[in-house]
Input
Amino acid sequence: MESAKNAIVLVFDGLGAGLLGPYGNTWLDTPGMNRLAAQSLVLEHTLVDSPQLADVYRSWWFGLHALCPPAACQPQRELARVLYDHGVLSTLLTDEAELIEHAGADRFSQHILLPTKEVIAAAAEPEQTQLAALTGAVVDWIDRAGEPFLLWVHARALTGPWDAPQAFRERLTDTDDPPPEPFVDPPAAADDADQLLGVVNACAAQVELIDMCVAALLDGLDAGRHADNTLLALTSSRGYPLGEHGQVGLAEPRLYNELVHVPWMLSLPAGAAALLRSHRLVQPHDLYATLLDWFGAAPPAGTSLLPLIAGEQLPGGDRAVAVCDAQRLIRTPAWQMRQPAADAPAKLFVKPDDRHDANDVAVRCADIVTRLRDCLAEYDQAVQADDFAALPALDDVLVEGLE
Output
């Protein structure tokens, strides 16, 4: 008899892909993430469709793109409701109170909101941090869980207190650098280069803490009774700008790579997804579809990525769109365009070479800008019709680039 299937989704808010070793970071050691990547399908190009927490969760929990009107969030599409109809109980475990009130959380069978306290100083030891407390709660829950289950874990991570021990920051600070400041509130500005360097090192310290917690979660899962039948997905709801494009923090989100490019690693039992990588462009509604497929439910939207693990080719995956207020961003295999507003000049970047959106070529490639604006309009129409299959094929130059 086939055993029940389970799934665990780990979301670390603010954790951009560029901060992790599996996505090319060479200045910060992330052994826990490296370990997970080695046993996972690593999605190289995951773009959130919005940096607003409520919107990206609507995409994860309803399978809808952020461009969809709120009225499209029909109860029958709720992830937890669909899974309940298939005999799967869902639990939301988080330290973010906003999520408990989200419409997509209605049908979760259990809500666990970890209490938080005011943090005024860094923890003396990693075990005393808020993220460590959440990690302990996750491991305890898994040990007691009945099957089948979906456990959705959301950690404030980089949007919560930066309370990794001060020793972490000191270790990352060179002898010629100013001593690290002891702030714990997520920074929203940096007045000069020295202060920005301190912010970057403090962020790195917090990422090291996240990495330690991921390693502890992997140890707990491997040693537990659910290891042989549990899918594990790790991702993030947005990045955290660290001075790129003049922005620190999330107060005024700007649609650039440091904000929208997030990790997504997908691990299956028995190492079925080990050492696989995909350059497909994926977005949050694809996680919705993947989870429903894992539990044997037909997804009404998005594309399940499980066939990639079996070596199958999937249609689509050649464009991604993000939205924030009047801003639009569109990514194809060869280009990324940011449209600050409908009547503002666009910014265009060559992909995948320009990893950091540093070299705007819009003036030299006006025809590409026009084509991408047309693609944005087509994408918006497809979203409103809930019919991505209706999207026309991209021009070769949008896929292959210029010779």
Summary: The mean pLDDT is 94.
